[in-house]
Structure formats: C-alpha cells, structure tokens
Design brief:
The chain is of the alpha/beta class and 317 residues long. The protein has a single domain, classed as Ureohydrolase domain (Arginase, Chain A). The protein contains ten helices and eight strands. It has an eight-stranded parallel beta sheet with strand order 2-1-3-8-7-4-5-6, sandwiched between helices. Helix 4 packs parallel to helix 5 and helix 8 packs parallel to helix 9. The radius of gyration is 18 Å and the shape is globular.
Length: 317
C-alpha cells in the first residue's frame, strides 16, 4: 500500500481547476526533498524542443500536461487498476534544460534521470520533443532495455542536413549506436505517412528492430500487435516511449509532425492496456505541442496516456 502522503488531491475536496497544478495532483518532490527515496515512480518534466525539425512548441508540453492531468482520478475504469494505492508516485518537477544549448540541455536531463534512479525511482518522463528520450536512456543505467515505441515515425534517420547535430528524428539510431537499447528485443509500432526514402526501415532491419506499420497493426489487430511486442521484449527490462503523433491528428492535433491515417484515441489506449506485463524500467510521453492544440484535446489525451503508462508501471497482483 502507498503512503497517504503520496495520494493525489481529490476533486471531492478541492475543485480540479483550483490549487497549484502538479502532474495528477501529486506531491511535488524536487531533487533534495527528504522523502524522494520513498518514491516508486516519479513524473519528470522535460521542457525542451531544441531538437524539433518542424513545428516547435513541445517545450510547453509539461506545463500543459500538468494542467490537463488534474482531471485524472484514482482508478482506471477499464482495468480496475489503482496505481496510487499500490505505489508511491510524485511529481519530481522539471529537468533544468537550457533552451539555447543542446548539449547542456540533454546532459541536465540525463543527470536528473540518473539522480532519480539513484533514489530508487522509475522515471515516467513528460516532454518535450523526442530527442529527450535519448537523454533519458543515457541516464537510466543498467542493462540495455528493449524499446517499445508507439510513434508514426521510427526516429532512426541519420542527422539531418549532413551535420552531426541530433534532432528528434534521430534518437533511436543514436541510442542503438551507444548501446542504450537492445534492438533484438525492440518493436516500433504505428509508422505511416510519406518518407524521404527507406533508410530508416533498412536500418531497423540491420539492427534487428521489428517495425509494425499502422496498416499492419490495424490488419493484424491491436491485441496481436501488442502480443508481438511483449513476446519480443521477453522478461527483461523494457523502456516504453509514446509519441503523441502515434494518434491520428483528428484526435491529437497539437504536435509538431502530424501524420494522418493513425489510430483513434480509444485504439491507442487499447494498445497500451494490451502491453500489460512488460518489465518497465521507465516510460515517456513526448511531442505534445500546446500552441497547435485545439481546445486542449491533445493535452487531455496526453494526460490519459500518462495515466495508462502509470498503470502499466504499477505492480500486478
């Protein structure tokens, strides 16, 4: 059972639009807080989009998601899971990421993750663009986890414009090169849209990463696709990364590189629930860009995704 200190503030006692917003109305425990060592899962903001190659704005994602997540309640009605009853969860604040220095920003994020892991905390990180995930993986330590990616892009391309500067299109190519993920156990789901060429798919094949396109996912079925990812990952450590553009922009317009023809919000949540059983050492949600959102629907979907990820990280009876 979790400590009452770590229970979210109930909407029955304080209106959800009132008070200081934290992720899911949880206590804020920044680095150095005396109770950090009691946290099982910590939500960490990644307010940075310096790796964006198209429409910016994801640096504002953590703040918008904190506000939207005040609507999250205690129980997952679809699965019956009550994550706050089985583990201590807290808002760890934001990594201090420089908006003008990519190396410093990514290093600060890696340090923040490393500090959380040293305190025994599994990070549930909130972006921010997808290059942030590379910094999280650098900070995790331990054996390289399998990657389960829900995204409309592979993010396996070489650096753009012939240079060496990384962007949100390269994090997993770089992560594989640095030995931060186990490609032979990794699965990427949801790829679709136009492409420059087949270089990213070819590189995935060379690495041993399995790609399931959106068309294949819908043809094979959501449960079968999730089962494939679980089977490939096996019993070892797994990192799950969810790019909001995995979802069709009709349901998630607030993102930098939208691709039409994706799953609905309900289908996306179904896939997440079907991934239950993975040994998650961490997870993230990235690429929510509030300036391109419509009525807050992307942020609300993102908050719901965060809750589903949290439920996946909760212990199972």
């Amino acid at each position: 059972m979790s400590d009452p200190f770590f229970q979210p503030v109930s909407g029955m006692t304080l209106a959800r639009y009132a008070g200081v917003p934290t992720f899911m109305r949880l206590p804020h425990l920044p680095e150095g807080h005396p109770r950090r060592a009691e946290v099982d899962v910590g939500l960490l903001g990644m307010p940075w989009d310096g790796g964006t190659s198209n429409r910016p704005g994801a640096r504002h994602g953590p703040r918008a998601l904190r506000d939207a997540s005040t609507m999250v309640r205690e129980m997952n009605r679809a699965t019956g899971i009550r994550p706050f009853a089985s583990m201590n969860v807290a808002d760890l604040g934001d990594a201090t990421m420089s908006p003008v220095d990519q190396d410093a920003a990514l290093s600060a994020l890696s340090d923040a993750v490393r500090s959380a892991v040293a305190d025994g905390i599994r990070p549930l990180s909130v972006g921010g663009d997808h290059l942030c995930t590379l910094a999280v993986l650098r900070g995790l330590g331990g054996p390289p986890p399998a990657l389960v990616l829900l995204d409309s892009h592979t993010d396996l391309y070489p650096p753009y414009f012939g240079g060496g500067t990384l962007t949100h299109g390269n994090p997993f190519r770089q992560a594989a090169e640095e030995g931060l993920i186990d490609p032979a156990r990794s699965t990427m789901i949801g790829m679709r849209g136009t492409a420059y060429d087949s270089a990213d798919f070819d590189h995935a094949a060379e690495l041993g990463i399995r790609i399931v396109t959106t068309d294949r996912m819908l043809e094979d079925g959501l449960a079968a696709t999730a089962a494939l990812a679980r089977e490939r990952a096996g019993p070892g450590p797994v990192y799950l990364s969810f790019d909001i553009d995995f979802v069709d922009p009709a349901f998630a317009p607030g993102t930098g590189t939208p691709e039409v023809g994706g799953p609905t919000s309900q289908q996306a949540l179904t896939v997440l629930r079907a991934l239950a059983g993975l040994d998650l050492v961490g997870a993230d949600l990235v690429e929510v860009s509030p300036p391109f959102d419509t009525g807050g629907i992307t942020a609300w979907l993102g908050a719901s995704v965060l809750f589903e990820l949290l439920c996946l990280m909760a212990p199972r009876s």
